[in-house]
Amino acid sequence: QPLLQIRGLRAEIDGKLVLAGVDLDIAAGEVAAIMGPNGSGKSTLAQVLAGRDIYHVTGGSVRYAGMDLLAMPAEERARAGLFLAFQYPVEIPGVSNVYLLKAALNAQRGHQGLPELDAMEFLQKVKALTRELGMDEKFVQRGVNEGFSGGEKKRNEMLQMALLQPRLAILDETDSGLDVDALKAVAQGVNALRAAERAFVLITHYERLLEHIVPDRVHVLWQGRIVTSGGPELARRIEREGYAWLQHGAAEPS
Ligand code: ADP
Ligand code: MG
Ligand code: MG
């Protein structure tokens, strides 16, 4: 029984069909990469799995850890260990990063019936994790996104992830290129957290990230469907040849 089992998933936004029958299995312990050209539905898939309600699921099923994921509200999914890296699109000066991280962790602990961490305990935990992730610990005291570089934003996402210890982490690397520092931050975060009971879904436009995080499986999403799957060599083929070859005999194994 895979950790995540997606069957015939269909979803639309604004009346437009974006996911046209996605079939995908992700096993515990696995790092899966999802690649695909711009507009193929990668971010939509991530958002649908996280339960963002602007997307309308119109068919199919998703089982997660033996549960019917689509029947669960977004907060319950998060509580059940599903993590979608959240990026604040704007700066929130005056709201410190540490404040939001502590709120997120204590909300999760509350749901798990664990006592809240007090400020001291929390700071000790954050300190240890920032060291592990190669972050400056002063960083967490800054305002949310206040003057964060690309690499710092990514380190911050990795810190969220390391704090929350998800069972399934979905990282949607948007199409805007990651600089080298940001790539390293993501790789360091994911590689540090790779574990037998945890799975990652790395959504990425480019192969570059996969030089730093070697995935177990690579899946290509094309016009709302997974059209081919393979090992890391599939990512290298896409880097060399792009996606055009998929148009002819889409499901042909490489
Ligand atoms: P990808 O992440 O692979 O680039 P997306 O999931 O972002 O693809 O988008 C897939 C399709 O859904 C695109 O055609 C896009 O225009 C459409 N789409 C995504 N989000 C929205 C939205 N909020 N409103 C309308 N259309 C959207
Ligand atoms: Mg896009
Ligand atoms: Mg996207």
TrEMBL record:
Give all residue intervals belonging to the ABC transporter domain: 4-248
Task: Tell me which InterPro entries the record gives.
Answer: AAA+_ATPase, ABC_transporter-like_ATP-bd, ABC_transporter-like_CS, FeS-cluster_ATPase_SufC, P-loop_NTPase
Q: What keywords would UniProt list here?
A: ATP-binding, Cell membrane, Membrane, Nucleotide-binding
**Record carries keyword Cell membrane:** yes
Q: Does the keyword Nucleotide-binding apply?
A: yes
- Pfam families documented for this protein: ABC_tran
Q: Which Gene Ontology molecular-function terms are recorded?
A: ATP binding; ATP hydrolysis activity
The family assignment reads: Belongs to the ABC transporter superfamily. Ycf16 family.
Protein name per the record: Component of SufBCD complex, ATP-binding component of ABC superfamily
